[in-house]
Write a structure and sequence with these properties.
three-stranded antiparallel β-sheet, five-stranded parallel β-sheet, alpha/beta, binds adenosine monophosphate
Length: about 220
């Protein structure tokens, strides 16, 4: 089962992808996490990506496509995967079609999580993430017991550099310009399923699981 989670930054793609991966026993391929991992290891790719990420811009297609292709070619993705944050441009969507073809795989469905812009800004500006286990909290909606400490592992919570107000606005603008056209792209192939992401987080998960259950082979 090869699924794409599509949606604006702050729509809950990452949280939902993690839950679905556990439920369906699939690897989670998140392009943002791959970039952050490169950044942490200070690889050449990480240094290049940082300039774009800090401004809320997209990393160039060729670099992003190469990185995700390498990840999808690994053996753990042979039985399926959940893609989160990729594709984000039409060029990436077309490249993904070719990657699937090359690897003899087929896209099962695209789940679009819809959330209005004002809600996105509120969600992203309150987001805090554990440095150690990457669990996500929100200072208002799902606060940790202690402000700077992860409830699960005791790790330090931090605010992503790109979750600052100016960068959030830039990311949402980029989303509307470059990523939203993918909705039409996947609608045309009958693969798109829209889910309301502006409801309780558990209900979003339940809806996604129901939709996935209805997808063909
Ligand atoms: P995310 O964790 O998905 O919000 O991604 C964080 C940042 O990584 C984005 O704002 C981009 O700078 C970069 N990034 C992640 N995925 C992609 C992608 N598919 N194409 C280009 N840049 C990306």
């Amino acid at each position: 089962m090869y699924l794409i989670l599509l949606g604006p930054p702050g729509s809950g793609k990452g949280t939902q992808a993690e839950r679905l991966c556990k439920e369906l026993n699939l690897p989670h391929v998140a392009s943002g996490d791959l970039f952050r991992d490169h950044l942490k290891r200070e690889t050449e790719l990480g240094v290049l990506a940082q300039n774009y990420m800090d401004k809320g811009h997209l990393v160039p297609d060729d670099v992003t496509i190469g990185m995700v292709k390498e990840r999808l070619s690994r053996s753990d993705c042979r039985g399926g995967t959940i893609l989160d944050g990729f594709p984000r441009t039409l060029a990436q969507a077309e490249a993904l079609d070719s990657i699937f073809q090359e690897l003899g795989q087929q896209l099962t469905g695209v789940l679009f999580i819809a959330v209005p812009d004002d809600v996105l800004i509120e969600r992203l500006s309150g987001r805090r993430i554990c440095r150690n286990c990457q669990t996500s909290f929100h200072i208002l909606f799902s606060p940790p017991r202690e402000l700077q400490t992860c409830d699960l592992c005791g790790g330090e919570l931090y605010q992503r550099d790109d979750d600052q107000p100016d960068t959030i606005r830039a990311r949402i603008k980029v989303y509307h310009k470059q990523t939203a056209p993918l909705i039409k792209y996947y609608q045309a192939t009958d693969l798109l399923h829209e889910v309301d992401g502006n409801i309780d987080i558990d209900r979003v998960t339940d809806t996604l699981i129901t939709v996935i259950g209805s997808l063909g082979p």
